[in-house]
Structure formats: structure tokens, C-alpha cells
Amino acid sequence: MSNRLFRQLHCAFRVIALLLLGLCAGLRANTRILEVPLALSGDARSEFTTQVRLMSPGRLAVQILLSPDVRGHAPLSASIARPDRSEAVRKDAVGSFRLEYQATELEIDQFVSTGNLSWTLRVMQGANPSGEVHGRLRITVPAAPRQLVDTQFTLLGSGNAQEIPFVVPAPGKIQVTTSWETDSSATGVTQSVPLTLSLIHPGLAQTYARRQSRSPQRIEHQVNEQQLNVGSRWFGRIQNDSQSKVKGSIQVIFVPAL
């Protein structure tokens, strides 16, 4: 093999490696991994349960990892149940094993709309257990950002404002992004004028973020459990204090808390 061909192949492998690393980083960024201790007594039907909140569609995976000193035990039964208690998937196996379920966007939207987000993970001894079982569960939860709002707005000048309501399903980060330009239908010329963008929780009658600038602009806020206990309804407020009519768009992205 010539040196030139070797260098070309080496460069190609480096590019592929970098692409794979980028892909893996992206996958990790859209998931969260939890580890929970697992312990089952030697009694028949001994059961361990834990819950995770699922707000994004994707693959929910549970690895049952038994401690090295657990040997020759009877089969265990593992299952994943939806928030309405219907069983999504079940598996019986001996030794360490993995259980997966692909949650669809339709399912997630259905449960998010009711505020019921807790999926139940269950591990259980069989009818004839061979002793105590202990280890841990490694749970991979999809946590991709969700778009709550994507809409257009038109504002006249002199303090005209518009409020865009949305519901925050759980603790996490709200990112509000907007862009606009003046309406050129009358003058034929567009220009950049400042607008004021605010993030407001009406239940607390409090503004958590506010910014006045020219297009585009973005504000964000980390929503906690205490704020949601008062109410999950929020709104973004856009106000135009210039004398020009403006048209624009606003997007609200929710990033689940890790």
C-alpha cells in the first residue's frame, strides 16, 4: 500500500470516528440514565417497583444487573407499565437481562395532557424462588426537548401586546425564542425595532424573565416543582412599544430536567 493511499484511508477513518463520536454525544444528550439499587427477598412473588417520569417519546430501557454473588437463581419477571397501569412490555429471564419499550409520541402526548407522567418498572420473583436477589437497575429514559409552541404573531405599535399561553408538563427548562420584522406592505421597507419579551407565571402573578432587544431574541427559565404546584399554565408576552407594525414568530421549547 502506498503512503498516499495509507494517508487517505487514515484521514477517512478519522472522519468516520469523529462522526460516530458526535452521534453518540447527541444520543447521550437526549437521554438520562438512572441507577437504582435492586433487592428481592427469597419469598415467592417478592416484588420491587420504581417509577420514572417520561415526557419525551423514545426508547425506555431497563437493565437488570445482578450482583456477581447471585448465582443459579430462578427466573425473574420484569415489566414496564404505562401511567394508566396498562402493561407495555414484560420479560422473564435468568441472570442479568434487558427490557425495552419504544414509547410513541401519541402515547406521551396522551399522558402529558392528563398530567400523569409516571411509568412503573417492576421486577418480581417467580412462584418458586431460589433465594434472595440483589443488584441494581440501570434505567435509560428518553429526554429529548419538546416543542410546546410554534406560532405567528402580528403587533401594532404604541404598546400593543400579545400573550401566548402554554402548559409546562414537569420540571425542566423553558426556552422562548422569537424573531420579527416590520410590516413592509405599507412602506415597502423593513426595519429592526425592539420588542419586549417576557415569561410569566399567572398563578404566581410573577415575571420570571424579561428582555427588550431587536430581533431575534431568546429568554429561558428553569421551572421547579414548587412553581408547578401553584399551576402548570405559563405564557410568553410580546410587547411592541415602537410606532411600527411588526410580524413575527415565536417558539417555546421544553427541556426535561435531568
Folded structure, characterized:
A 4-stranded antiparallel β-sheet has the order 1-8-3-6. It has helices at residues 3-29, 105-114, 225-230, and strands at 31-40, 47-53, 58-66, 76-81, 87-93, 97-103, 118-125, 133-142, 146-155, 160-167, 172-182, 195-201, 206-213, 217-223, 233-240, 246-256. The chain has 258 residues and is an alpha+beta fold. 20% of the residues are buried. It is 17% helix and 52% strand. β12 (195-201) and β13 form a beta hairpin.
Short description:
The protein is of the alpha+beta class and 258 residues long. Helix content is 17%, strand content 52%.
Indicate the topology:
Elements: H1 3-29, E1 31-40, E2 47-53, E3 58-66, E4 76-81, E5 87-93, E6 97-103, H2 105-114, E7 118-125, E8 133-142, E9 146-155, E10 160-167, E11 172-182, E12 195-201, E13 206-213, E14 217-223, H3 225-230, E15 233-240, E16 246-256
Antiparallel strand pairs: 1-8, 2-7, 3-6, 3-8, 4-5, 4-7, 9-16, 10-15, 11-14, 11-16, 12-13, 12-15
Arithmetic mean pLDDT = 85
Measured between the Cα atoms of the first and last residue, the distance is 49 Å
Runs in which pLDDT lies below 50 for 5 or more consecutive residues are 9-13, 15-27
Radius of gyration: 26 Å
Strand residue percentage: over 45%
Query: How do the strands line up in the largest sheet?
Result: 1-8-3-6
